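pinning this so it doesn't scroll away 📌
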Amino acid sequence: MIEAPVRLKAIKILSRPPTVIRLPDEPILSCIERFGHWLGDLAGPLIAGQLNSDAKAVRTGPGYECRNRNRAENAKLSAHANGLAIDIMSFELANGQRLTIKPTGDERSRATVEALRTAACGWFTTVLGPGSDAAHAEHMHVDILPHGSSDRYRICQ
C-alpha cells in the first residue's frame, strides 16, 4: 500500500519549454520526483537530440501493482508493490514514430534505447530490460528500491 499515491499524467521538459511528455497509461507511483527528473532532464532531451523529434508520450505499465517480483508465487515483494517502480514500453515521438524498448532492427533506435538504459543506471537503483531476463524482454523496468546497506549499489542489466 502506498501512503501518498500520485497518478502521473504528464511531465514538463524544463529545458525545452513548452514541451510536455504525456503518460497516457497514468501510472501510480509513491514518488515521482526521480522518474520525472530522469524523463524531463535526460530522456526527453536525449531522444530529441538522437532522433530529431521530441518525445510526446511514454507508454508504461501501471506503476503501482501489488505483486511479487516477476509475478512469481514464492518471490520477494516487487518494488511495484510499494509504488517505487515503473515499466517503460515505448516512447511516442512528435513525428509520429514510436521508439520501442523491445529491440528492432533499427540501429539508431537501438543506440538511443541503450543510451537511455545506461543513463538510467545513474538515476535508479534497478534497471532491467531486454537481455536481462525473459520477464523484461519487451520493456525497461526502473525502480528506486534500496539494495543492501549502501544507497550506491545498483542492479543494471
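📌 and the second one:
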Amino acid sequence: MSTAQTGHAPALEGELLLDAWRAMLRSRVCDQRCFSLQRQGRLGVFSPVNGEEAAVVGSAWALDPARDWVVPQYRELPAMLRQGYRLEQALHYYRGHPAGSRMDPGVRLLPYQISLAAQMPHAVGLGWGLRHQGSDAVVCVYFGDGASSEGDAHESLNLAGVRRAPVVFVLKNNGWAISTPVRRQTAAPSFAARAEGYGIAGERVDGNDLFAVYEACSRAVARARAGEGPTLVEAVTYRMGPHNTADDPTRYVDPVELEEHRAHDPIERVRRHLRAEGLIDEASEERLVDELTAEFDAAMAEVEAAEPPGSEALFDHVYGTPTQRLERQRREAGP
C-alpha cells in the first residue's frame, strides 16, 4: 500500500535514510562554505543550521513534497531543498537578488521570513485553505524558541486549534533566542506543554535524534492528514554556532556547555548508526563531501556569473497581475 492509503510514513531506512544523511552533510557543507563566503564579502548575513540538522531533516522527511507545504523561518535550508528549492536560489537570496525569493512552479514552499513568527499566520491560512479545497495536504511551519514569544505565534497556534488546520508546528528549541537563553523565554516546563492551552496535540522530542524527530513528525502529519488538526512538536536541540554571521556567541555562551552539547552532534549520531549498519565508511563519506562541495562551488560560480538585478526587479513578482499604480511606478523608475 502507498503512504496515502495506510496513513503512515515509510520507515526511515534504506535509500530514504541515505537521502536524509546526504541532506544533513549537504547542510553542514553549505554552512561552512557560506560562512567563509560571507567573511569574504561575497554573501550577505547567513544563519547556519549547525547543530539543528536532525530537527530540520527529520521533520522534512516526514512530508510528501508532491503535496505538502513548508513554511520556513530562516534556518531551514535542508527542508527547502527537499521541497524543490534550488541551491542557486538560496545563494541568490544571500546575495540580495530577488530571484532567491521566487519559487519555481510546483514548488510547495514559501520564501524565507526574517521577521520572527510572521510566517506562522500565513502557514495557518494556507493549511486552512487547503482543507477547504478538499486537499489532504499538510503544512509544516518552522520557528524557534524566541519566535514562540511573539504574538503571531500564539495567535496562529490558537487559530489553528480552533479551525483544526492541518499544520505541523515545528518549534526548534535550540537553547537561544540570539543571546537570550530559554529560561528567560518561558516559565512553562516545556514549550510543548503550551499545546494543551491551544487545545491541540503536543509532543516534545530529542531534536538531535533524526529518527525520533522523523517519527514524531510522521505522527503529526498523519493526524493532520486525517483531519485531526494541528500538532506542536518541540524539537530540543542546540545551536552549535552563532545565531548568524553578525553574532559573536563567545560573549554569552559558556564554552564548557557548548562542548557538552557538541557530544550530541546530530550528524555524528547518524554517522555512528550508518557505520554500524555497514551503510557507509570513511571513504564513502569523504567522496560524498567532495561531491557536495563541488556541487556547492558550481552553484556559487553560476550565481556570481549572473547579471545583477536592475531597478526594474523591484516591480517583478509583486502581484500576479500588476496594478495600475505599480505599472506607473515602473515607468517612472525608468530603465
